[in-house]
Specification:
This is Very-short-patch-repair endonuclease. This protein is α+β, with helices and mostly antiparallel strands. The protein folds into 3 domains: 10-53, no CATH class; 57-182, no CATH class; 190-300, Endonuclease, Chain A. Helix content is 50%, strand content 16%. Strands 9-10-11-12 form a 4-stranded mixed β-sheet, with helices on both faces. 37% of the residues are buried.
Amino acid sequence: METTSEVMDPGAALESLGGIAGIGEWRRLTGRAAARDALEDGRVLRIRGRQVGLPGQAATRVLAAELGGTTSHLSAAQHHGWKVKTAPPLPTLTAPRSSRAPAATTKVELHWADLVPSSVADGVTTPVQTVVDCSRAYEFDVALCVADSALRSGLFTKDELLEAAARSPRTGRSRALRVARAASALADNPFESVLRAIALSVPGLDVRPQGWIGNAGRSDLVDDRLLIAIEADSWEHHGHVDAFKRDVRRYSEFARRGWVVLRFLWEDVMYHPEQVRRVLLETTQVRTRQLVAATSAVRVS
């Protein structure tokens, strides 16, 4: 029995879940019939166990062999089974600096580096190398999605990631360290990771993921000093009336305890981050003024 009253295109649904997902969570968004058709015609592939993904991994390995390169960056992240902000439009490969691979090609996103043998396994960059590469090459939100998903996978620890980032080449090292310090296994998906990346850019806002608010429940992001709870609201979690009712009651309980609850849609976080940041910035400024005023009133009294 379907749990949603609205379905999405199978490819778009998988994109919204980070390009790789459990077959159950994907099917809840797209419907059983559409999911079956997408699997049968090859638009979506079973990649391991109960997971599904977008096609392209096999082609990436072929291109890597043709160019004498290594599957790396976002293609390597997908190979490791991690969710990404958006699937790469082209296979992502790394070629050695001495390679004769064409510097300009429309077939791949090509990076240049002399990878040491320990950073490659079976033609793909190792998990920790993949995160460091993405952190050095891409925008913060893109890299944070990869790092969060990597830590969720349990293939290495945050301390190991910090150590690898500190050892990375000087060019891009500060970017790698920033991502490593911010990375968290607590983020559930790229939606939450991108929202946290935006929040971390707001002066005066200090958020942590999956924070408890008393015994009222958890919020995706919380600032304990300003009492701001930030929610990544997706149809995946609110597609059933019981989930909707549960969250309405939870948000009301947060407000009763003095918290401001901000709720953001997936399309706004992914496609209109400047609008999301403006809301976060203005709310932070208001709450900061309120906190200062309340502190001053206590001192006077």
